[in-house]
Amino acid sequence: MKKLIVLSGAGMSAESGISTFRDSGGLWEKYEIDDVATPNGWRRNPGMVLDFYNQRRRQLLKSKPNAGHFALAELEKEYDVQIITQNVDNLHERAGSTHVVHLHGELMKVRSTGPGEEVFVVPTDKPDVNPGDMCPKGFQLRPHIVWFGEAVPEIEKAEYMTYNADIFLIIGTSMQVYPAAGLIHNVQPGVPIYLIDPHEVNHLSYEITVISKGASEGMKEFVKLIRALEVKL
Ligand code: OAD
What share of the chain has pLDDT > 70, as a percent? Predict the structure, then answer.
């Protein structure tokens, strides 16, 4: 099976009702990145950070995968689909995708701030994490999120996946955050690259087939295009 490698971002989940970051009305208009998505913000005010992610978690629990997520899961019948997502939601998995790497962590997990940084699943019936919520060894729990300024532990795996792509699809990301945005440089010459986004994503000097649509409609068009590509090959 051909390897279809996907880099997804917040726009993938926009039609599921999850806020993006940099669109107008996005999260970074309402919050300062430094307050809620950096180790400094955590040190200054852990309660504010926990509250921010509690809100994100509650929003996620009310959301469902959209047709774009389902279309990617469905493509596993024809392709070896491997998803690199910047999203911390679990909508790819809930749609049925089986190979998902979360570059920026996962909302439904927390981890210990103590040695070993043990990771725990957040129960869906008690999704809030508060100051004073400890791991069994007595250390405060923090969101299992990669904040700005922190290492991205999954990046090497993602680079390797991208390097081996037969087809590369970028969907719903403004391509402004590194190292995720730099993954495209690992795509080998001659590998077709597609981009689904309803707005202009400016950046890339690569030859890219742009599908200027939202995730659900864009995925329909993408499927048609790769089927046509198969016929040509
Ligand atoms: P952004 O909010 O920067 O970009 C979202 C992209 O989705 C934009 O290019 C939109 O045009 C596009 N979009 C909007 N609606 C869409 C739809 N219905 N279908 C498809 N695309 C749509 O989000 P990311 O690029 O994911 O990191 O942001 C990258 C990282 O920055 C995030 O993982 C997060 C953030 O700060 C951390 O918090 C560590």
Answer: 98
User: Nearest residue CA, atom 32 of ligand 1?
Assistant: 86
Q: Which CATH architecture has domain 1-18+65-104+152-233?
A: 3-Layer(aba) Sandwich (3.40)
Closest CA to ligand 1's atom 26: 9
What is the set of active-site residues?
A: 104
Record: fold of 19-62+108-145: SIR2/SIRT2 'Small Domain' (3.30.1600)
Q: How far is the CA of 211 from the centre of ligand 1 (A)?
A: 16
**Mind listing the pLDDT tens digit of every residue in the chain (233 residues)?**
999 999 999 999 999 999 999 988 899 999 999 999 999 999 999 999 999 999 999 999 999 999 999 999 999 999 999 999 999 999 999 999 999 999 999 999 999 999 999 999 999 999 999 999 999 999 999 999 999 999 999 999 999 999 999 999 999 999 999 999 999 999 999 999 999 999 998 766 788 999 999 999 999 999 999 999 876 55
- The rounded Å distance from CA 123 to ligand 1 centre is 26
**Exposure pattern of 12-34 as b/e (b: 16+ CB <10 Å)?**
bbbbbebbbbbbeeebeeebeee
Residues contacting ligand 1 via CB (< 6 Å)? 9-11, 14-15, 20-23, 26, 37, 86, 104, 146, 148, 172-174, 176-177, 196-199, 201, 214-215
Give whole-number Cα distances, 230 to 55, 166, 193, in Å: 43, 11, 14
